[in-house]
Amino acid sequence: MEEICSKCNKNPSGKPGDVSFLYKNHRVIVFKCGKICLGCLKKEWVKNFEEHGKELVPSLTGRLKVNWKFFVEAESLERSDRLADILISFGIFSVDPEGNWNILSDALVGLNPKFNVIYLYFTRREDAMDYIQAKYSNTLYGWRLEYAKKTIKKETTPDKRGEK
Questions:
Q1: Do 36 and 11 touch, CB atoms closer than 8 A?
Q2: Are strands 114-115 and 101-105 parallel, antiparallel or unpaired?
Q3: CB of 92 closer than 8 Å to CB of 64
Q4: Is residue 157 domain-resident?
Q5: d(CA 12, CA 34)
Q6: Are residues 33 and 114 in the same domain?
Q7: Which of 32, 117, 120, 136 could cross-link with 93 by S-S, CB 3.0 to 4.6 Å?
Q8: pLDDT band at 164 (very low <50, low <70, confident <90, very high)
Q9: Is the pTM of this model over 0.70?
């Protein structure tokens, strides 16, 4: 027997996993937990966007343009998680470094925004440059923007502990 959605108490909740839908002609990808139906998830996402994202992404016509000054201001007030969630949903941020852009200081310290404790990577170079302009244009230290072509993850490297 399928579980019923914990929000509407009507529809089957379905399996957990990434789901996508269109919002004003833009593809949105979000993770759906197993306790909520797709309809309620969409409503939650739209409500979050309407409350927190309209100033972040002021126009949904054509290619999305992010108000990075607004995002940086929210970061300084420690209110950027909801905004980062919106940008992840639109595919502007990724949690995977491979194939994406990374900002580093001269000392090789990561300068990318974070979602809780997870580094976020820019999927588009122009967004990374606009973020740098909004956040780091007045700093005394240098920075560099790198594109990660290939990353090696722990689970793909052979275990060398037993070798002689």
A1: no
A2: unpaired
A3: yes
A4: no
A5: 10
A6: no
A7: 120
A8: very low
A9: yes
157, pLDDT greater than 80: no
Say whether both 5 and 75 belong to one domain. no
In-domain check, residue 123: yes
> Residues with Cβ < 8 Å from 105, sequence gap 6 or more?
111, 141, 142, 143
Instruction: Residue 83: give the domain boundaries.
Output: 54-151
What is the C-alpha separation between 91 and 131, in angstroms, rounded?
16
Residue 156 counted as domain residue: no
Is the separation of the CB atoms in 18 and 28 below 8 Å?
A: no
pLDDT at res. 34: 86
User: Mapping DSSP to helix (H, G, I), strand (E, B) and coil, where does residue 86 land?
Assistant: helix
How many domains does the chain fold into? 2
Q: Which carries the bigger pLDDT value, residue 69 or residue 164?
A: 69
30-75 pLDDT tens trace: 999 889 999 999 999 999 999 999 999 999 999 999 999 999 999 9
Tokens of 153: 């993850």
d(CA 126, CA 114): 18
Q: Which residues make beta-bridge pairs with 145?
A: 103
Q: Which residue has the tokens 């399996």?
A: 15
Six token digits for residue 47: 């409500």
> Which has more confidence, 89 or 116?
89
Paired with 119 in beta bridges are: 114
Within this chain, do residues 47 and 126 fall inside the same structural domain, yes or no?
no
